[in-house]
């Protein structure tokens, strides 16, 4: 676990479980969370956790998660609040809360995991319940950020072509909400391969695959399987990397033909590569702008909001932040990440001045 900064509130960041997780990766992600939360204007600091996970049964995974939760309990929830990430979701967040005995020790819990407290509610008893990220909060926020970017770039989202790399929780919900806006997704890469549908995927069939938790290779419509490296050279208006850290690198950066890149994944490329692509004329929505829907949802759960209030809050905050950052970027021809960082750093610095016990 890395707690990066608590100037604006307790450190907030998910628990990532992968076979190759490193301290460097967790540290980079924790720093990103510091600025993501500041930019979203929510009272959380930045943190992240990682568990080296080689795979196994649910029983073994529960042992790993709960052992870890008990080990970090001294920091919960004053310095750290857990959340979902790669290979962790509502089930794992329930395990964390049960292991610590603290309802607020994690967000992204199941919707039926609730706590009652005395307050200004009907009958004097208030109730807070979990809001799992499986409800689509991050993907919804990515779609909202994408729509803003398209507007600023002069692209009609109803006629925009899109490619999505990674089709897990974030990628599937980004697909769902973007297609509802009228965008046409023509390339998808998931664990089963990389696929091109020049005329767009059939929305109903993809929705059925998502519902049945089947991979894109099971799609029965007109589909072309392409080499994974060729995903990056598919000409589209909007590319959405929604898979893993550093998925865009020196080996594929020069193949990219997209006009806009919306970083649904955390740190999908290093900052020098991001800057290089920006200099080539690609409008980039940084990760801590585009995928803040998850942590905004976490804040809404923490406050006891309903699902409807959660989606309204995400739309409002993501659209406002994306519009502010991208408009300024275009106006002064400055990398959107630099613009966003200046805004976020100012908020963190002000918080550090106002709080004596922050770090």
Q: Can you count the helices?
A: 11
CATH class division of the largest domain: Alpha Beta
Low-confidence stretches: none
- What would the CATH topology of the largest domain be? Rossmann fold
Biggest sheet, strands in spatial order?
Answer: 11-10-9-8-12-13-14
Mean of all residue-level pLDDT scores = 95
Shape: globular
Would you identify the CATH architecture of the largest domain?
3-Layer(aba) Sandwich
Which percent band covers the strand fraction? 15-25%
Instruction: Indicate how many domains the architecture comprises.
Output: 2
- Taking Cα atoms only, what radius of gyration do you get, to the nearest Å? 20 Å
From the N-terminal CA to the C-terminal CA, the straight-line distance is 15 Å
Largest sheet: 7 strands, mixed
Decide which structural class fits the backbone: alpha/beta
Q: What would you say this structure looks like, in words?
A:
The protein is of the alpha/beta class. It folds into two domains: 2-107, 3-Layer(aba) Sandwich (Rossmann fold); 137-292, NAD(P)-binding Rossmann-like Domain (Rossmann fold, 3-Layer(aba) Sandwich), CATH 3.40.50.720. Helix content is 42%, strand content 16%. It contains eleven helices and 14 strands. The protein has helices at residues 23-39, 58-72, 90-100, 137-153, 169-181, 203-211, 271-279, 287-290, 293-303, 307-332, 336-354; strands spanning 2-5, 11-12, 15-18, 45-52, 80-81, 114-118, 125-129, 161-165, 184-190, 193-196, 224-226, 238-241, 260-262, 283-285. The strands form three sheets. A seven-stranded mixed sheet has the order 11-10-9-8-12-13-14, with helices on both faces. Strands 1, 2, 3, 4 and 5 form a five-stranded mixed sheet that branches. The chain has a two-stranded antiparallel sheet with strand order 6-7.
């Amino acid at each position: 676990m890395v707690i990066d900064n608590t100037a604006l509130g307790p450190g907030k960041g998910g628990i990532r479980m992968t076979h190759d997780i490193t301290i460097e990766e967790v540290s980079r992600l924790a720093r990103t969370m510091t600025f993501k939360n500041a930019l979203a204007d929510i009272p959380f600091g930045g943190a992240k956790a990682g568990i080296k996970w080689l795979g196994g049964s649910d029983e073994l995974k529960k042992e790993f998660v709960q052992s870890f939760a008990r080990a970090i309990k001294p920091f919960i929830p004053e310095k750290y609040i857990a959340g979902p990430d790669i290979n962790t979701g509502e089930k794992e967040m329930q395990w964390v809360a049960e292991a610590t005995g603290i309802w607020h020790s994690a967000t992204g819990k199941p919707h039926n995991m609730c706590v009652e407290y005395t307050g200004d509610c009907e009958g004097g008893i208030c109730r807070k319940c979990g809001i799992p990220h499986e409800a689509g909060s991050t993907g919804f926020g990515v779609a909202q950020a994408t729509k803003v970017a398209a507007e600023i770039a002069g692209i009609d989202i109803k006629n925009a072509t899109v490619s999505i790399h990674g089709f897990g929780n974030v990628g599937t919900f980004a697909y769902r909400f973007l297609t509802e806006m009228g965008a046409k997704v023509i390339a998808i890469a998931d664990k089963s391969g990389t696929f091109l549908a020049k005329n767009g995927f059939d929305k109903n069939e993809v929705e059925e695959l998502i519902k049945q938790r089947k991979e894109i290779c099971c799609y029965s419509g007109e589909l072309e399987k392409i080499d994974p490296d060729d995903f990056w050279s598919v000409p589209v208006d909007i590319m959405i990397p929604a898979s893993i850290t550093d998925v865009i690198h020196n080996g594929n950066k020069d193949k990219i033909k997209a006009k806009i890149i919306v970083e649904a994944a955390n740190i999908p490329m290093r900052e020098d590569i991001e800057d290089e692509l920006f200099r080539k004329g690609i409008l980039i929505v940084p990760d801590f702008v585009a995928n803040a829907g998850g942590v905004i949802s976490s804040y809404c759960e923490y406050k006891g909001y309903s699902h409807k209030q959660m989606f309204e809050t995400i739309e409002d905050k993501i659209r406002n932040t994306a519009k502010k950052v991208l408009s300024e970027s275009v106006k002064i021809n400055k990398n959107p990440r630099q613009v966003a960082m200046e805004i976020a750093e100012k908020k963190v610095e002000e918080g550090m001045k106002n709080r004596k016990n922050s770090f």
